[in-house]
Amino acid sequence: MTDESFLISRIREGDYAAFRILYEHHVDPLYRFLKQFSRDRHQVEDWVQRSFIKAYESLDRFAGRSRFSTWLFAIGLNEMRSDRRKTQTVFLEEAALGQSVTEDPHEHFAWDELMRGWLDQLDDIRRSVFILHEVEGFSHAEIAQMLQIGESASRTILSRTRQWLKVKWNEERTHT
């Protein structure tokens, strides 16, 4: 039984200190990952908090077939997507009613000016695969499980994203 498995079994028995240990181990990586989808620190903190609450409330459904972090990141992605759908709905409703639109719903999903905004141009799936693999170090099997795509799709998406970034890099170099 791994340390994480032990902690999860302790949490299921009501050991809140074990959850705190699990939280402290995973909070920073989850925050770094979700930060790639919003510049708003408070929004990211909210996603992280809701992710941990959902993980705690549904821990009995965690089967242990994957790493806890894989499961937690999937919850975090769902929280981000859910929030995005709500923001998009409010934005569209305000625009349809002719009200002043208070914010661009896509503004939240920019990468903090890294790589000259190139990752901003990627859709959520491509950005997620790239960040999960290249930044967070998840395997393609784990990414496939998190994003509910095939493992080969994860590999293909990563390969095409890398190619696209190389093209952008070469364009930038030839223009300077």
Summarize this entry quickly.
This protein has 2 domains: 1-108, Orthogonal Bundle (Rna Polymerase Sigma Factor, Chain: A), CATH 1.10.1740.10; 111-176, Arc Repressor Mutant, subunit A, CATH 1.10.10. The protein has 7 helices and no strands.
Tertiary shape: elongated
The first-level CATH class of the largest domain is given as Mainly Alpha
What CATH architecture label of the largest domain applies?
A: Orthogonal Bundle
SS element count, helices: 7
* Helix percent band: 55-70%
- SSE run: HHHHHHH
Strand content: under 5%
Instruction: Give the tally of structural domains.
Output: 2
Written overview of the protein:
This protein is mainly α and 176 residues long. The protein has two domains: 1-108, Rna Polymerase Sigma Factor, Chain: A, CATH 1.10.1740.10; 111-176, Arc Repressor Mutant, subunit A (Orthogonal Bundle), CATH 1.10.10. The protein is built from seven helices and no strands. Helix 1 (3-12) crosses helix 2 (16-35), helix 2 crosses helix 3 (41-57) and helix 2 packs across helix 4 (68-96). The relative contact order is 0.10. The model is unreliable at 90-114 (pLDDT under 50).
Question: Features of this protein?
Answer:
176 residues, mainly alpha, Rna Polymerase Sigma Factor, Chain: A, Arc Repressor Mutant, subunit A, 2 domains, 7 helices
Helix and strand layout, with pairings?
Elements: H1 3-12, H2 16-35, H3 41-57, H4 68-96, H5 124-135, H6 140-147, H7 151-175
